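pasting input
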Amino acid sequence: MIRKGDLIGRYRVEEETGSGGMSKVYKVKDMRVGTFLALKEIIIKDKSFFNAGYAEAFVLKNVNHPALPRIVDILRTENSYCVVMDFIDGCNLEEYVKNYGGFSETEVIKIGSTILNCLIFLHSKKILYRDLKPSNIMLTKNNEIKLIDFGISFSFDEINAADKRASKCFAPPEQLLGKETGVQGDIFSLGATLKYILKDEPSPGMVCFLNKCLKNNPSERFKSAQVALKALNRIKTINEKEVKKLKRIVQKNVFFLVIFFLSVTGIFLCAKVREKRNEYEALVNVACNSVDSCERKESLIKLIEKEPSGEWYLRLFYELKNDYVFDYSEAGEIEEMLERDEGRLKAEDHKRISEALGRMYLFYYTDDENENYRRATYWFDKACDNESDVYSRIGHFLSEIPSMILEGKDGGMYKKYYSDLNEIVNDVSGKESVVRTEVYSLYADSILLYGADFYREGISMEEMRNTLKTVEKFLNEENGGREFEKEKESILKRIKEAKGELDYVEEFFGGKY
Amino acid sequence: MLKNFLAENIDYIEIIFIALSVISAFLSVYYLICRKSVSAFLKLLKLRKITGRVRNEKK
């Protein structure tokens, strides 16, 4: 019986570190060198126990591997046999699993590789370990793996088939049945050990490896530790392949789901576009074909809001001047709309609209006479940027003439104005009646207001009378709605007054100019 | 330009979308049921978790 403080040879017993069925292990100090070692005392109860201790010493003294403890000494006491070997400071894998739950698969692969390398070495020396289990594998503080307890290891030549001291959970079935074991027995124990120390569910690669290790029939297991090591190193590749396969399935499904949702969104958007298109077509239909002028106007305003274009604006102007009145509120609404759509309208459309709006102000704006010419000039200028346009020139004349008269600077302006007026009167002869009415109305008004000035600046009475006659003839031939008739009557009245004015000028100023 | 193209060809575009949705729905269902993509996804997650853990932090 060894006690703490006993001196066995040159080794002083420090403490008992473990005990098993066949032996006790002590931590001892080498009194000569001063290092700590492990002393395994195998009490000789019978021949088999002696054989076990002897076997361990025999096995280890002939081998030298980083994963195996080194035999330092073999001593014999009165009733025991002591094997002095390296002291391994750490815990065995069974304790580790109990304390921490186990190892991750990556760590298990590393541990398995170390053990398999050790088994390759042992098998090459014709030694079977035969008792591989977590409690026989030490994890040192330096994270090294060491195999301990070679109590039932034997050389291939000395297999004792009747030895049933192997751990039941980790021993191969053939060993438990007392049959002959080979290298496949160690591989079975390795598989069982790795399965035990694995913390999580094994990966597909690991499952394949463990299944092959744990086959009941030894011939179905890995043929050798080398083959098992190769398979263990292939686990990563197998897992990567599995990941790739699963990824492909998931990616394809996600792709099709995305396409499905995009298509459904596309169908929904198409329905929306179609709805909008139908709505737009209905508006166009009302704007072009409705008998109700208000309805047409409303539709045109909605159309302009949706898609501003020159065509819709011009149609709207046409609707607005149907009653021959372009009032303050209508003008404000149109200018607001144009301001809103300035960026959305094409330059060409904007020009056409500006010119048409100028004419609207010039011919139909009735709320404020000075304001109509000023606004008309503004829009004509916007349409052509200079006074090259005849309407622009007319607008400028009409807006400037009142102040020029007051300042006495109007001399010489009338001839030019009459020339422009004559140009537009001749220009509209082929155009639609509403445009001609606009111009003829302006002509009649101009003769009425500035007839004497035209005559003074050299325009002949004959010419003015002839033009008035042409205008009168046109108006008498033209028939239209109630509004047109009203306007026609008004213009004819002004023509009559203009003729009277010309007669008066001729009579009063005859021969003076 | 694009707006006009869309407005003019909306019927064809809608047909294309309907065809795409039918095909993709069929393939999605095929992958969900026959190729068990949901379990493949869960397996993949598990596998990532297993193989992704390099070291035991408790060590």
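fyi The longest strand of chain A covers residues 11-19.
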